[in-house]
Design goal:
Number of helices: 9
Helix content: 40-55%
Strand content: 15-25%
Number of strands: 9
Oligomer: single chain
Shape: globular
Radius of gyration: 16 Å
Order of helices and strands: HHHEHEHEHEHEHEEEHE
Length: 239
């Protein structure tokens, strides 16, 4: 999605949630400064790394995730796919001894597992927004093979492929990397959250609050936009 089109959705999101564009831009500027010092990947470099396949699997952190991971282990040859974990979904893959090729994160998931995935070769897509400035500052230098993204105007080393949540941003990234087929695993858009997306909950699943429900609504909307507008086959294991 070109930024000119994305900006219309972005303005809608800012108004709907009461987010600050200025804070988003400050977080993006900080991430860009860190990556300028520490080093980072370009989209072309990441494309070369994952160029072994144009078939992707994107893992969301929904309640169907564990079931889908087990199904994929049993019935798919995962070596034929680029595996993209959306933030907390990384934990489910680590639990099954699966190393993702890419992790898309705003640093809100289980950081030990994301760091472990990075150590095992995962490329980390770190997203800057107004609510994670402190995490950007403290945690970004610990990762290697990083590509930075923003939901505001892209600057410097940062990209904006479109998307709002870790899950749908992972889809837009996959499209930007040339995916011809994307399988969706654990990409639920209902009203249930899991401990993968909310590590602090005491049970495996819980009812989503209104804020999370609204975010999932946007994730579903942008997933449908990809289905309607991009030249990519979407296979949803939920269907």
């Amino acid at each position: 999605m070109e930024f000119g089109l994305w900006e219309k959705y972005y303005t809608e999101i800012l108004n709907d949630f009461g987010f600050s564009r200025k804070n988003d831009e400050e977080s993006a500027k900080l991430l860009d400064e860190i990556l300028s010092t520490e080093g980072c990947l370009t989209l072309d470099e990441l494309g070369e790394i994952v160029g072994f396949s144009d078939k992707f699997i994107v893992f969301g952190a929904g309640p169907s995730l564990k079931e889908h991971v087990q199904l994929l282990k049993e019935e798919y040859d995962l070596k034929d796919y680029v595996l993209v974990a959306a933030d907390g979904a990384t934990t489910a893959l680590i639990e099954q001894k699966i190393a993702p090729d890419i992790v898309a994160t705003d640093l809100d998931g289980n950081l030990d597992d994301i760091l472990l995935a990075n150590f095992r070769g995962a490329n980390i897509i770190i997203h800057a927004h107004g609510d994670n400035i402190d995490k950007i500052a403290k945690l970004t230098p610990f990762f290697t093979s990083v590509l930075g993204t923003t939901q505001a105007q892209p600057i410097g080393n940062l990209y904006n492929f479109g998307g709002f949540t870790d899950g749908d941003r992972a889809l837009f990234l996959s499209v930007a990397l040339g995916a011809s087929e994307i399988t969706l695993a654990g990409m639920d858009f209902g009203d249930i959250v899991t401990r993968y997306s909310r590590p602090n909950i005491e049970t495996e699943t819980a009812q989503a609050d209104d804020f999370k429900k609204k975010k999932l609504g946007y994730a579903e909307k942008f997933t449908q936009w990809i289905i309607d507008n991009e030249n990519v086959e979407i296979i949803n294991l939920k269907e």
